[in-house]
Protein backbone atom coordinates (compact mmCIF):
# COMPACT_ATOMS: atom_id res chain seq x y z
CA UNK A 1 0.00 0.00 0.00
CA UNK A 2 1.45 3.36 -0.98
CA UNK A 3 1.14 6.58 1.01
CA UNK A 4 -2.20 7.53 -0.58
CA UNK A 5 -3.80 4.15 0.01
CA UNK A 6 -3.40 2.59 -3.45
CA UNK A 7 -2.30 -1.07 -3.26
CA UNK A 8 0.98 -1.99 -4.91
CA UNK A 9 2.23 -5.14 -6.59
CA UNK A 10 5.80 -6.37 -6.32
CA UNK A 11 7.35 -6.95 -9.74
CA UNK A 12 9.91 -9.65 -10.49
CA UNK A 13 12.47 -6.84 -10.56
CA UNK A 14 11.81 -6.28 -6.86
CA UNK A 15 10.24 -2.87 -7.45
CA UNK A 16 6.70 -1.97 -6.46
CA UNK A 17 4.10 -0.74 -8.95
CA UNK A 18 0.75 0.85 -8.01
CA UNK A 19 -2.17 -1.45 -8.83
CA UNK A 20 -3.86 1.12 -11.07
CA UNK A 21 -2.41 3.55 -13.59
CA UNK A 22 -3.56 6.56 -15.59
CA UNK A 23 -3.00 6.36 -19.33
CA UNK A 24 -2.04 9.45 -21.30
CA UNK A 25 -2.56 8.30 -24.89
CA UNK A 26 -5.47 8.93 -27.21
CA UNK A 27 -6.80 12.15 -25.73
CA UNK A 28 -8.07 14.82 -28.11
CA UNK A 29 -7.37 17.56 -25.59
CA UNK A 30 -4.50 19.95 -26.41
CA UNK A 31 -1.38 19.17 -24.39
CA UNK A 32 -1.65 22.50 -22.57
CA UNK A 33 -5.06 21.43 -21.26
CA UNK A 34 -3.87 17.96 -20.29
CA UNK A 35 -1.07 19.27 -18.07
CA UNK A 36 -3.25 20.67 -15.23
CA UNK A 37 -5.39 17.53 -15.37
CA UNK A 38 -2.32 15.35 -14.85
CA UNK A 39 -1.43 17.46 -11.83
CA UNK A 40 -5.02 17.03 -10.65
CA UNK A 41 -4.61 13.26 -11.04
CA UNK A 42 -1.55 13.31 -8.79
CA UNK A 43 -3.53 15.34 -6.26
CA UNK A 44 -6.34 12.77 -6.46
CA UNK A 45 -3.94 9.95 -5.62
CA UNK A 46 -2.63 8.53 -8.90
CA UNK A 47 0.98 7.43 -8.62
CA UNK A 48 1.30 5.34 -11.79
CA UNK A 49 1.30 7.02 -15.22
CA UNK A 50 1.50 5.32 -18.62
CA UNK A 51 2.99 7.21 -21.56
CA UNK A 52 4.96 6.59 -24.76
CA UNK A 53 6.92 8.52 -27.34
CA UNK A 54 4.12 7.73 -29.79
CA UNK A 55 1.55 9.44 -27.55
CA UNK A 56 3.48 12.70 -27.51
CA UNK A 57 2.82 13.06 -23.78
CA UNK A 58 6.16 12.22 -22.19
CA UNK A 59 7.10 15.89 -21.84
CA UNK A 60 3.87 16.97 -20.16
CA UNK A 61 4.05 14.01 -17.78
CA UNK A 62 7.48 15.30 -16.78
CA UNK A 63 6.10 18.81 -16.43
CA UNK A 64 3.23 17.53 -14.28
CA UNK A 65 5.70 15.74 -12.01
CA UNK A 66 7.75 18.93 -11.64
CA UNK A 67 4.65 20.97 -10.83
CA UNK A 68 3.43 18.38 -8.32
CA UNK A 69 6.82 18.52 -6.60
CA UNK A 70 6.70 22.31 -6.56
CA UNK A 71 3.23 22.30 -5.00
CA UNK A 72 4.16 19.71 -2.41
CA UNK A 73 1.72 17.10 -3.75
CA UNK A 74 4.58 14.61 -3.68
CA UNK A 75 7.85 14.78 -1.79
CA UNK A 76 10.03 13.09 -4.41
CA UNK A 77 9.94 11.63 -7.91
CA UNK A 78 10.40 8.21 -6.30
CA UNK A 79 6.75 8.29 -5.22
CA UNK A 80 5.70 7.89 -8.85
CA UNK A 81 5.89 4.93 -11.23
CA UNK A 82 6.17 6.08 -14.85
CA UNK A 83 5.82 3.64 -17.74
CA UNK A 84 6.94 4.62 -21.22
CA UNK A 85 7.20 2.50 -24.35
CA UNK A 86 9.52 2.15 -27.32
CA UNK A 87 7.62 2.06 -30.61
CA UNK A 88 8.13 -0.61 -33.25
CA UNK A 89 10.92 0.02 -35.72
CA UNK A 90 10.25 -0.55 -39.39
CA UNK A 91 12.18 -3.21 -41.26
CA UNK A 92 11.91 -4.97 -44.59
CA UNK A 93 9.60 -7.94 -44.06
CA UNK A 94 11.61 -10.08 -46.47
CA UNK A 95 14.67 -9.80 -44.23
CA UNK A 96 13.22 -12.05 -41.55
CA UNK A 97 16.46 -13.13 -39.90
CA UNK A 98 17.88 -9.59 -39.69
CA UNK A 99 14.56 -8.47 -38.20
CA UNK A 100 14.72 -11.19 -35.56
CA UNK A 101 18.33 -10.33 -34.79
CA UNK A 102 17.34 -6.67 -34.47
CA UNK A 103 14.64 -7.65 -31.99
CA UNK A 104 17.20 -9.53 -29.93
CA UNK A 105 19.56 -6.54 -30.05
CA UNK A 106 16.72 -4.29 -28.91
CA UNK A 107 16.06 -6.65 -26.03
CA UNK A 108 19.73 -6.50 -25.12
CA UNK A 109 19.58 -2.70 -25.14
CA UNK A 110 16.57 -2.79 -22.82
CA UNK A 111 18.42 -5.12 -20.48
CA UNK A 112 21.40 -2.76 -20.53
CA UNK A 113 19.10 0.15 -19.59
CA UNK A 114 17.97 -1.92 -16.63
CA UNK A 115 21.54 -2.77 -15.60
CA UNK A 116 22.59 0.88 -15.86
CA UNK A 117 19.71 1.95 -13.66
CA UNK A 118 18.01 3.92 -16.45
CA UNK A 119 14.88 1.82 -15.96
CA UNK A 120 13.71 0.19 -12.74
CA UNK A 121 11.89 -2.56 -14.63
CA UNK A 122 11.43 -3.58 -18.25
CA UNK A 123 8.35 -5.04 -19.90
CA UNK A 124 6.60 -5.81 -23.16
CA UNK A 125 3.24 -5.14 -24.77
CA UNK A 126 0.89 -7.22 -26.93
CA UNK A 127 2.91 -10.39 -26.33
CA UNK A 128 1.14 -13.73 -26.70
CA UNK A 129 2.03 -16.80 -24.64
CA UNK A 130 4.05 -18.09 -27.60
CA UNK A 131 6.05 -14.88 -27.95
CA UNK A 132 6.61 -14.66 -24.20
CA UNK A 133 7.93 -18.22 -24.24
CA UNK A 134 10.42 -17.34 -26.98
CA UNK A 135 11.41 -14.19 -25.14
CA UNK A 136 11.98 -16.01 -21.86
CA UNK A 137 14.18 -18.55 -23.64
CA UNK A 138 16.47 -15.73 -24.84
CA UNK A 139 16.27 -13.12 -22.10
CA UNK A 140 18.61 -12.88 -19.15
CA UNK A 141 16.27 -10.36 -17.50
CA UNK A 142 12.62 -11.46 -17.76
CA UNK A 143 9.96 -8.85 -18.49
CA UNK A 144 8.22 -7.61 -15.36
CA UNK A 145 5.01 -6.65 -17.17
CA UNK A 146 3.07 -7.53 -20.30
CA UNK A 147 0.61 -4.78 -21.28
CA UNK A 148 -2.31 -6.02 -23.36
CA UNK A 149 -5.96 -5.25 -23.96
CA UNK A 150 -7.92 -6.77 -21.08
CA UNK A 151 -11.44 -6.13 -19.89
CA UNK A 152 -14.60 -8.06 -19.07
CA UNK A 153 -15.33 -8.32 -22.81
CA UNK A 154 -11.79 -9.55 -23.61
CA UNK A 155 -10.77 -11.51 -20.56
CA UNK A 156 -7.40 -13.00 -21.59
CA UNK A 157 -7.74 -16.02 -19.29
CA UNK A 158 -5.05 -18.13 -20.99
CA UNK A 159 -2.55 -15.27 -21.04
CA UNK A 160 -3.30 -14.33 -17.43
CA UNK A 161 -2.61 -17.88 -16.27
CA UNK A 162 0.61 -18.07 -18.29
CA UNK A 163 1.91 -14.74 -17.00
CA UNK A 164 1.04 -15.60 -13.41
CA UNK A 165 2.96 -18.86 -13.73
CA UNK A 166 6.00 -16.98 -15.09
CA UNK A 167 5.91 -14.17 -12.52
CA UNK A 168 4.89 -11.53 -15.07
CA UNK A 169 2.23 -8.97 -14.17
CA UNK A 170 -0.41 -8.05 -16.74
CA UNK A 171 -1.30 -4.39 -17.26
CA UNK A 172 -4.71 -3.94 -18.85
CA UNK A 173 -5.09 -1.23 -21.46
CA UNK A 174 -8.63 -0.38 -22.61
CA UNK A 175 -10.04 -1.74 -19.32
CA UNK A 176 -13.41 -0.19 -20.21
CA UNK A 177 -13.30 -1.29 -23.85
CA UNK A 178 -11.86 2.05 -25.03
CA UNK A 179 -15.39 3.42 -24.65
CA UNK A 180 -15.64 6.81 -26.34
CA UNK A 181 -12.56 6.32 -28.51
CA UNK A 182 -12.77 5.69 -32.25
CA UNK A 183 -11.33 2.17 -31.96
CA UNK A 184 -13.41 1.16 -28.96
CA UNK A 185 -16.83 -0.39 -28.41
CA UNK A 186 -19.56 -0.35 -25.78
CA UNK A 187 -19.37 -4.04 -24.87
CA UNK A 188 -18.12 -3.19 -21.37
CA UNK A 189 -19.98 -0.02 -20.47
CA UNK A 190 -23.32 -1.20 -21.88
CA UNK A 191 -23.12 -4.74 -20.49
CA UNK A 192 -26.44 -5.67 -18.82
CA UNK A 193 -24.55 -7.95 -16.44
CA UNK A 194 -22.28 -5.14 -15.26
CA UNK A 195 -25.20 -2.75 -14.99
CA UNK A 196 -27.10 -5.15 -12.74
CA UNK A 197 -24.07 -5.71 -10.51
CA UNK A 198 -23.40 -1.96 -10.35
CA UNK A 199 -26.95 -1.24 -9.18
CA UNK A 200 -26.81 -4.04 -6.59
CA UNK A 201 -23.51 -2.80 -5.16
CA UNK A 202 -24.19 0.94 -5.54
CA UNK A 203 -21.16 1.30 -7.79
CA UNK A 204 -20.63 2.60 -11.31
CA UNK A 205 -20.32 0.21 -14.24
CA UNK A 206 -16.72 1.36 -14.67
CA UNK A 207 -15.92 0.57 -11.03
CA UNK A 208 -17.32 -2.95 -11.41
CA UNK A 209 -15.30 -3.49 -14.60
CA UNK A 210 -12.09 -2.23 -12.97
CA UNK A 211 -12.68 -4.23 -9.80
CA UNK A 212 -13.03 -7.39 -11.89
CA UNK A 213 -9.61 -6.76 -13.44
CA UNK A 214 -8.16 -6.18 -9.98
CA UNK A 215 -9.56 -9.48 -8.72
CA UNK A 216 -8.10 -11.33 -11.72
CA UNK A 217 -4.66 -10.00 -10.80
CA UNK A 218 -4.50 -7.41 -13.57
CA UNK A 219 -3.47 -3.76 -13.28
CA UNK A 220 -5.93 -1.49 -15.11
CA UNK A 221 -4.62 1.52 -17.01
CA UNK A 222 -7.57 3.90 -17.00
CA UNK A 223 -7.96 6.88 -19.29
CA UNK A 224 -10.14 9.73 -18.13
CA UNK A 225 -9.38 13.38 -17.58
CA UNK A 226 -12.82 13.97 -16.06
CA UNK A 227 -12.07 14.90 -12.45
CA UNK A 228 -15.01 13.02 -10.94
CA UNK A 229 -14.36 9.85 -12.94
CA UNK A 230 -10.66 10.01 -12.10
CA UNK A 231 -11.62 9.84 -8.44
CA UNK A 232 -14.26 7.15 -8.97
CA UNK A 233 -11.79 4.93 -10.82
CA UNK A 234 -9.55 4.88 -7.75
CA UNK A 235 -12.40 3.69 -5.53
CA UNK A 236 -12.12 -0.01 -6.35
CA UNK A 237 -9.90 -1.34 -3.59
CA UNK A 238 -12.07 -1.48 -0.46
CA UNK A 239 -14.80 -3.84 -1.70
CA UNK A 240 -15.05 -7.11 -3.64
CA UNK A 241 -17.13 -8.90 -6.21
CA UNK A 242 -18.66 -12.14 -4.98
CA UNK A 243 -17.87 -15.48 -6.60
CA UNK A 244 -21.37 -15.46 -8.06
CA UNK A 245 -20.83 -12.03 -9.60
CA UNK A 246 -17.47 -13.08 -11.03
CA UNK A 247 -19.16 -16.15 -12.50
CA UNK A 248 -21.75 -13.97 -14.23
CA UNK A 249 -19.02 -11.74 -15.65
CA UNK A 250 -17.27 -14.79 -17.09
CA UNK A 251 -20.36 -15.34 -19.27
CA UNK A 252 -20.05 -11.97 -21.03
CA UNK A 253 -19.58 -12.45 -24.81
CA UNK A 254 -16.00 -11.74 -25.86
CA UNK A 255 -15.25 -8.91 -28.27
CA UNK A 256 -11.81 -7.40 -28.80
CA UNK A 257 -11.73 -3.63 -29.31
CA UNK A 258 -8.08 -3.10 -30.27
CA UNK A 259 -7.00 -3.93 -33.82
CA UNK A 260 -3.59 -2.28 -34.32
CA UNK A 261 -3.35 -2.77 -38.06
CA UNK A 262 -0.46 -0.30 -38.19
CA UNK A 263 1.69 -2.98 -36.56
CA UNK A 264 1.22 -5.51 -39.34
CA UNK A 265 1.32 -5.75 -43.11
CA UNK A 266 3.97 -5.24 -45.80
CA UNK A 267 5.28 -2.10 -44.06
CA UNK A 268 5.74 -3.77 -40.66
CA UNK A 269 8.82 -5.33 -39.18
CA UNK A 270 7.87 -8.99 -38.91
CA UNK A 271 4.15 -9.72 -39.05
CA UNK A 272 1.82 -9.73 -42.05
CA UNK A 273 -1.40 -10.09 -40.06
CA UNK A 274 -2.83 -9.68 -36.57
CA UNK A 275 -3.14 -13.46 -36.44
CA UNK A 276 0.65 -13.71 -36.80
CA UNK A 277 1.24 -10.89 -34.33
CA UNK A 278 -0.95 -12.41 -31.63
CA UNK A 279 -0.55 -16.09 -32.56
CA UNK A 280 -4.32 -16.43 -32.47
CA UNK A 281 -4.26 -15.88 -28.71
CA UNK A 282 -4.83 -12.25 -27.75
UniProtKB/TrEMBL annotation:
State the name under which the record lists this protein: Protein REDOX 2
Signal peptide annotation:
none
SUPFAM superfamilies (alphabetical): NAD(P)-linked oxidoreductase
Q: Where is the active site?
A: 55
Site described as Lowers pKa of active site Tyr, positions?
Answer: 85
Which Pfam family is an annotated match for this chain, by its short name? Answer: Aldo_ket_red
Q: Name one GO molecular function term.
A: oxidoreductase activity
Which positions fall inside the NADP-dependent oxidoreductase domain?
A: 108-252
The record's annotation in PROSITE patterns points to:
ALDOKETO_REDUCTASE_1, ALDOKETO_REDUCTASE_2, ALDOKETO_REDUCTASE_3
Amino acid sequence: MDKVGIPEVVLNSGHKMPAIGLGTGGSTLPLAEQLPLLVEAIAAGYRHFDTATLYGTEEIVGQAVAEALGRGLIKSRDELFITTKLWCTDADHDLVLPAINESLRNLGAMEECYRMGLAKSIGVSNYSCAKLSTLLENATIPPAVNQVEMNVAWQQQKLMEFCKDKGIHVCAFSPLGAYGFYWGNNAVMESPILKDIAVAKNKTVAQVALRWIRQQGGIPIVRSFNKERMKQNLQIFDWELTDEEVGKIQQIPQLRSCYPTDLVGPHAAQYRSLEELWDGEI
